[in-house]
Amino acid sequence: MLAGLGVRHVGARAAQTLATHFGTIEQLSAASLDELQNFKIDGKPSGIGSEIAGSLYSFCNRKSASTSSPT
After folding, report:
1. Burial class of residue 59 (count of CB atoms within 10 Å of its CB; 0-12, 13-18, 19+)
2. What is the b/e burial string over 24-33, where b = at least 16 CB atoms within 10 angstroms of the residue's CB?
3. 14 with 48: CB under 8 angstroms?
4. What distances in angstroms separate CA 71 from CA 30, 61, 63, one per listed residue?
5. Which residue from 53, 50, 39 is spatially nearest to 7, judged by alpha carbons?
6. Are 20 and 48 within 8 A, CB to CB?
7. Helices in the chain by DSSP H: which ranges?
8. What does the DSSP 8-state code read for residue 70?
């Protein structure tokens, strides 16, 4: 599902890696940029670099900002 959201640079392989590590869209959306860039799988770098992480982080924060209600 993540690959189908149209997040720039997030293809099927990156989407699978992210889904496996974070588990839910809520956990993924709550992740910091540092968490997205630096998590490991089986003790090895995930392969999610700064370009993918930055794109996903921007996407998640843009969606959050557009859905939050003004106070």
Report:
1. middle
2. eeeebeebee
3. yes
4. 21, 18, 17
5. 53
6. no
7. 12-22, 25-30, 33-38, 50-67
8. P
The amino acid at residue 42 is: D
Q: Is the pTM of this model over 0.85?
A: no
Which 3 state secondary structure label does DSSP give 40? Answer: strand
Q: Can you tell me which residue has the tokens 């996407």?
A: 59
Contact (CB, 8 A) for 46 and 40:
yes
CATH number 1.10.150.20 given to 2-67: yes
Residues 10-34 pLDDT 10s: 999 999 999 999 999 999 999 999 9
The number of residues making up the chain comes to: 71
